[in-house]
Design a protein that fits this description.
This protein has about 240 residues and is mainly α. It has a single domain, classed as Tetracycline Repressor, domain 2 (Orthogonal Bundle). Helices cover about 70% and strands about 0% of the residues. Helix 1 packs across helix 4 and helix 8 packs antiparallel against helix 9. The longest helix is centred in the C-terminal third of the chain and has 27 residues. The N terminus is likely disordered.
Length: about 240
């Protein structure tokens, strides 16, 4: 379950209004939100044990300790549950990482703070690694939306960190997105090689994190300068 006050505000409260159009009380909305979170977290726990293929609504409701019929007050189907779970847990992660990197002015600061916040989240919620690892197959639409959101956000961040000058002013947002895509892939590989045992996240060694950050700090300026040079070439 999400830590109290840490991430729950990142998910939009469901069922704020009754079917007749009356707004529910704050207490009722809060209760609905907690129940929805229980379902989402229970789903992650089931997936961590059984994988998506073994994650049934019956197992989810048993893990969440709710009646089978209650599930359908929050989700129309198993497919919708998988899609929403991925997007909602990404909102939690994005909120945590966003707060961690607030005020960072260099790529080294962003990567160091962001990685540590990301990995701390996965340590507290190790079930979510398998959720993301298998999502590309079992929730492809939501997974594609999740990856695109991550890359676009990171591209805008890169554009903000590297101030426009005679070199990078020629670089388009799509070129920043290409760099962000490569960094996304590098992070994923880092986690899979060093951070996972038995389908659960256990942490990435400090040396591996520092090596990644050094690689990023040294590589991005060179890549952007090359991209800018190509943009300035005639024809």
């Amino acid at each position: 379950m999400a830590s109290k006050g840490e991430e729950s505000h990142m998910i939009e409260a469901p069922h704020s209004y009754t079917r007749s159009g009356r707004r529910r009380s704050d207490r009722a909305i809060s209760k609905n939100l907690r129940t929805r979170e229980r379902i989402v977290d229970a789903t992650a726990s089931v997936i961590a044990r059984e994988g998506y293929a073994g994650c049934t609504i019956a197992r989810v409701t048993a893990a969440a300790e709710i009646a089978h019929g209650t599930f359908y007050l929050y989700f129309e189907s198993q497919e919708q549950l998988f899609d929403q779970m991925l997007l909602e847990t990404h909102k939690r992660m994005r909120g945590i990482v966003g707060r961690a990197i607030r005020g960072a002015t260099t790529i080294a600061e962003v990567e160091d703070r962001g990685l540590r916040a990301n990995f701390n989240f996965l340590r507290r919620h190790p079930d979510y690694f398998r959720v993301w690892a298998e999502a590309e197959v079992f929730a492809p639409k939501a997974y594609a939306e999740y990856v695109d959101t991550v890359i676009r956000s990171y591209a805008r961040l890169l554009a903000a960190i590297f101030p426009p000058d005679e070199t990078v002013e020629q670089v388009s947002l799509e070129q920043y997105a290409a760099v962000a895509s490569m960094l996304y892939g590098a992070r994923s590989s880092l986690v899979r090689r060093y951070g996972v045992k038995r389908q659960r996240f256990v942490g990435v060694p400090e040396f591996a994190m520092k090596t990644y950050i050094e690689f990023v700090v040294a590589g991005i300026p060179a890549v952007l300068a090359q991209a800018a040079a190509q943009e300035r070439r005639p024809g």
